[in-house]
Amino acid sequence: MVVVQASKLNLPYPSLSSPHITSLLFEPNSLSLALMHSDSSFSLYPSLSSPLSLSSLPPPQTLIHPPSSSSTFLLLQNPNPNPNPRVLFIVSGPYKGGSQVLLRFYILHKQTQFVRAQVVCTQKDLNFDHKLGVLVDSNHGVSIRLSGSVNFFAMYSVSGSKISVFAVKDVGGDGVAVKLMRCAVIDCCKLVWSISVSFGFLILGEDDGVRVFNLRQLVKGRVRKAKTSNSSLKLNGVIGDNVHSEAGDCGNKHGSGKCEGTCDGYLCRKNDRNCVSVKQRSVKLKQDSCEDGVCFAAFKGKELETSKSRRRIPVKAISIDALSPNKLLILDSDGGLQLLHLSIPVIGSDITTFMQQLPNTMKVQKVAVLPEIAARTQSVWVSDGYNSVQMMVASDMDSAVSQNDLNESKEKPMHITVGLTIFTGEKIQDLTPLAGNAILILGQGNLYTYATS
Predict the structure, then answer these.
(1) Which of 61, 136, 351, 365 is a plausible cystine mate for 101, CB 3.0–4.6 Å?
(2) Alpha carbon distance 389, 186 (integer Å)
(3) Which residues, other chains included, contact 123 with Cβ-Cβ below 8 Å and sequence gap of 6+?
(4) Nearest to residue 26, comparing CAs of 361, 315, 441?
(5) How far apart are CA 99 and CA 140, in angstroms?
C-alpha cells in the first residue's frame, strides 16, 4: 500500500497585497528553491534542510527585483568531477526598452546565501556593469527563454529569432566571480516552442518534433559538413554537459594546438588544466542546418478533415524534460507524451534517434521530472492543469550509448505505469519534483508538498 504524506507550506507573506507566486524552480543538488512572483520578482531559498519536513518557508535571504522575464539554475563543474558543484541562478530581463537583454547572476556562496556574482566577459557584445549585471547586445522583445544545465546555458530571443549558447566557468578567487562567453548563435527560421540544455545536448521544441544539437560540436565550432570534417581533436570521453579538451589542450580554429598564454579557448591561461575549449568567436549557424551534430526527430501530427479539404495540424513540442542522458520526455500541445531515445555520439558522428509515443492517461498540461542517472526506475509527475496529479513510474531506464542499444530500445519500449493519483483542492498552477518520491505543487498562491512511502 502506498502511503502519501501531504502538508501545506506557510509563506512569509502575511499581507494580502504581497505579490503571489506564479512559478517554481528547484535545484536538487543544493536543495535550493526559486519562487517567481506576480510582479516578476524572485525569492531565493538556498540549501533548504529537509524540504519535505518544512511546515513554513523562512523569509527569503535574497530578493531579485523586477523586471524579470525568465530564469534558470546552472551548475559549475570543473573537468575533475566535484560531488558538490557550484550553483548559479541566472535571471533575464529587458533593458533600454527591450533593445538589450540584462542578465543577472547570483552564486550560492558557502552553501548559505545567493549573492551577486562578478562576471568577467571580454566579447564586444557582452558588457558587465557592477550595478546592473551583464548587458547583452540582443533584442529582448516580447519574450526571453533561458535553459541551463552544467557549465552552459541557452537564451532564446523570440523577437530576435536567435538562440545564444553561453559558456560559464568559475574563476575561483573569493568564490563569487565567473567567466562568461557567448560561444554559439543559432538563427531561427522556424517557430521554437520550448528549449532545453541537458546531458550534452541542446534541444529545441518545434512543430511536429524536436531538433537536437550535439553541444560538444556546437560550442567547439565543429558543426561541419560530413565531407569536410577532418579534425584530429580528441575528447576525453566525458558524458554530459562538461565540454572540455584533454588537460592542457586548447582548440584553435583548426581544432587542435596547445594552450600557451592567451589563446582561442574559453578562459585559457598558461598551464590552465581546467581549460574549457571553445572558440573565442561565437559559432553561427541556421536552425535547420543539415550538418553533423544536428538532427530533427519527428512525431506524428494530426489531420483535420473538412468538407472540402484535408489539412494537417502541426503538434507543438511545448516542454522537454530529461529522464536520463539518452532519454527525453516531450509534452506536445495535444496533451500527449513522447519519449525520445538518443544515441550518444562521439565527436564528428551523427546523432541517431527513436521517438516513442506513450499511452495517454490524461490530457497532460504540466510535467515534472527529476533525472536520476543510476536508477532503473524513474518517477514522472504529470498534471492535467486542474486538480489532479499522477505519479507515473518508468522502468527499464538503462542508458543506451550505441546504435545497437538504440535498436534494442525499439524492440523493447520502456514500460510506464501509473503508481499514484493525487487530487488537490486548488487548481494547479505549477509543480516541481523535490525527490524521486516527492513533489512540490503550487495551487492558487499556496504551496503543498506530497511524498510517498
Answers:
(1) 136
(2) 36
(3) 181, 182, 280, 282
(4) 441
(5) 6
pTM of the model: 0.83
Which of 325, 268, 376 lies closest to 150 in space, CA to CA? 325
Taking the alpha carbons of 223, 345, 189, 71 in that order, is the dihedral positive or negative? negative
Phi and psi at 117, nearest 5°, equal -95, 140
* Selection from 87, 116, 94 nearest residue 40 by Cα: 94
Q: Report how far residue 331's alpha carbon sits from residue 320's, in angstroms, rounded to the nearest whole number.
A: 7
